[in-house]
Amino acid sequence: MKFETKDCLELTEDELQAMIDLCEAASEPVAQEFLTSEKERWVLVSLSYENDRLKGFTFFTLDRIGGTPSIVTGFGCVACYSKRRTVMRGLTAEQFKRALISFPEEDVLVGACFQEADCYEVFWKLEDIVPRPGYDPNGEDRAWGTRLAKRFGIEDSAYSRRDFRIKGCSETAPVWRYTDATAKKNGSQKSGPKENGPKENGTSDLFSKVKPDRGDSLIVHGWVRKEDLIKFTS
After folding, report:
1. Fewer C-beta neighbours within 10 Å, C or N terminus of the chain?
2. Percent of the chain with pLDDT over 90
3. What mean pLDDT value characterizes the chain?
4. What is the CA 65 to chain-centroid distance, rounded?
């Protein structure tokens, strides 16, 4: 399995088509216009290949939000197969490597949009994740949600500061797609850890008001500590 990160402007038409094919195979089709928009919206894209076939990708930008080092993640998708977790972790590791180069000796905020509880696995290396089950967000937590909403280009009227929810901004939301769509279609979920899946740990409750079919999502953020970033040195 191979991972690479490149400037979005370097994406070829063949690579965009491979992204479209991957999303369609995952039962989550997207239009070329949407991916072209994401290509123009973000600075970097990480890609995962196995035997020269695209198995996952994610758009992102390294930024400073109010002076704080940040990884802001756009649309991403992982193929529905047995190595999904390996692909996802490799893609996020690519982001961490770039963050370490840009923000050495600093903790880094990571922000993304999720529509499904299983996507919390994407934050596997993060601490102080907000929102999370059993935690009452404080004013600073909510301020970060608002800052990220602004960074994502969300209008104030479409963002619920109370529960970090984006309300139906578009038919295709710029979210992480990590849920096993095939298992979901068949009425089962296999992507969460067996001993502590979304239902068991309460994460699913955070999405009780999220309607993916109308473009709803949650803004979720957390922190990767500098001592953890160092572990991703190439």
Report:
1. C
2. 74
3. 89
4. 18
Q: Exposure pattern of 188-220 as b/e (b: 16+ CB <10 Å)?
A: ebbbbeeeebbeebebbebbeebebeebbbbbb
- For residue 97, give the nearest of 54, 150, 160, 44 by alpha carbon: 44
229 burial level (CB within 10 Å; 0-12, 13-18, 19+): buried
CATH of 2-232 among 3.20.20.140, 3.40.630.30, 3.40.50.620, 3.40.1180.10: 3.40.630.30
Nearest to 218 by CA among 153, 156, 170, 173: 173
For the chain, how are helix, strand and coil distributed in percent, rounded to 5? 40, 25, 35
In the three-class reduction of DSSP (H, G, I as helix; E, B as strand; rest coil), residue 131 is classed as coil
